[in-house]
Recover the amino acids of this structure.
DNA sequence: AATGAATGAGCATTCATTCAT
DNA sequence: TATGAATGAATGCTCATTCAT
């Protein structure tokens, strides 16, 4: 019936993961119910538990999705010849998401903020991993550019992204992304 | 019986506000129950409602507390002669809070992130106001320094604070605050 | 200070009783809070308990008020020479209250209906007493008219009043009172 | 396992509706907790919300039950040849319920009285509809009897029912129903 | 694998009543 | 007497999770 190679269930799992990623970004973890996710994925609530044992499993899947998305994006950027251009393209990609950022913030960032408040550190560690993944790739570009303090520079760039996303959200103004994005590009050019 | 000049109830109201501010910062809005706040303030749960009609009223009170704290801090900074020095002192104050930031993020920032996810815009507007309050004061300093693009510069500075707080939290590393704080000071000096 | 002969507190007690009677009629017993009554009487909530030990005491006071009002009305009607005319004047008085009846029903009747649902029979007995008080006076008029079955006739008349009040409320139509009132008058004339 | 043709859930929904109707009649809306209804239906409290989203939904269901019961009764009465006999049979049915009426009043009437006290008009409108449903059927019988003022006569008959139910309750005397019922039958015969 | 239906712990909120002064 | 404040037991409702089929 399915014209895909994958097993039947895998598709539904992916659908749930995608739904979780989207809804959790929009509503936050605590304000999102399993029913919300199930509805978005068009899957009966009871069935969700066949694929994810707990709500936290779905949050973890969303984190995985973010990680995969990041990987895919950086892989694509790797096709660009110059490391500086790769970073500039990364900033451009961020700015492109300005409308979403102004409404719901950086998907990874806001999720991390929420998970960081938890007393038990399980998912927050996972969230930290995703942030570090981005940080590492950025640092690699700075290293390729010949900078010794690549880690510091990476921190500054990613921090800049998080900051501008937060400010765009707080001020409900996408143009914050444009302005700060331009500044980051200028900074990259001046390095 | 009381050695204070203030009315009896006002003290408890302040106690509740302070408790709310602290607990909401630590646990986030959604994960915090009224019982949590009541317990922190050492007030019976039922009594909370004598002072605050709803949970959201407590959140709003916490926002007010942030605003007042900000006012007090900037008032103190105003005593410093040079606007550039004022801003550098502001950054220093941020860095001083590094342990807290690394554990729970920027109090105003994380609260704003959470409130921004709400569908109905009431408290998120209030949160935006607090962010803007800081932004305005910072912009005034840049204006005093003779910069025409004070608003942009203010955005960059505050955005830098939000970004470094978020990164410190994600990486669970207070030193992020030290490093990025130093960079901001350098940036201020170079302006 | 007070230019009345009565003790200071008595006035407040009357004020509370009047407020209770009015608010209980409008909102019903269960939907009325002590605060509602206190506010209507312009008395601090805590002070209510000095005059009435429990909420039920206030309900009982309202029943007493109804009884007193009834007494006063029938006393006034007693001034009319003919018993038949007294009854017709009673019906006219009911019809005069048509707007209130269409909105909130008969004060005594609706209160009785609500109290009758209680498992413990204390206040409902009291309510029954008030209804009986009216019934007795009406029966006396029928006796004076020379009817042997005065009790039955009284039941019919008062039942008619209760029925038309309920219907006026259900249909939200004061004219129900006018029409049924006219019928009762015709019935009285035909006896 | 089930020897019924109906879906599993429908049966429980009916059970809850029946329980709500019964308990609400006995205790009144405000004095009835969801736990009361759940217990009467032998359903866990949390599960009630699977079938009814709010307590008011349950009240509405009870109103629907009354409407359905009324429909069923009048349908049965329609089998009787003469309209006057139909009405007399209706009165007889009312009198048959005298024990219940003397204890808890007319199910529809007392519910309406309580709902009418609400400030917001949603359920009270629904309650009015049920009263009107009875009124309409009765009026149709009077029309069939050749009366031009069928609406007025219907009002008088139903009003008589409400009045006698209320009085039976207030006096805690089922015989009130018998006596007033007989009077109504006499009135019908005399028309 | 799929699904409608449980289940019960938890939470915000209300309110009659009491207390301290 | 008067009053603001305190108290705690309820109550409606939500929701993650489990169950039965």
């Amino acid at each position: 019936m399915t014209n895909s190679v994958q097993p039947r269930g895998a598709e539904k799992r992916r659908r749930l993961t995608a739904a979780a990623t989207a809804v959790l970004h929009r509503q936050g973890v605590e304000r999102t119910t399993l029913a919300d996710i199930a509805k978005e994925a068009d899957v009966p609530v009871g069935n969700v538990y066949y694929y994810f044992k707990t709500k936290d499993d779905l949050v973890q899947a969303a984190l995985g999705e973010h990680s995969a998305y990041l990987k895919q994006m950086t892989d694509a950027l790797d096709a660009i010849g110059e490391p500086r251009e790769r970073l500039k393209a990364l900033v451009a990609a961020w700015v492109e998401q300005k409308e979403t950022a102004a409404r719901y913030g950086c998907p990874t960032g806001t999720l991390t903020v929420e998970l960081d408040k938890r007393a038990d550190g399980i998912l927050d560690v996972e969230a930290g991993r995703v942030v570090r993944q981005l940080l590492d790739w950025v640092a690699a570009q700075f290293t390729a550019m010949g900078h010794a303090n690549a880690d510091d520079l990476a921190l500054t760039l990613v921090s800049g992204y998080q900051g501008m996303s937060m400010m765009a959200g707080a001020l409900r103004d996408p143009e914050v992304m444009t302005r700060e994005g331009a500044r980051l590009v200028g900074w990259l050019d001046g390095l």
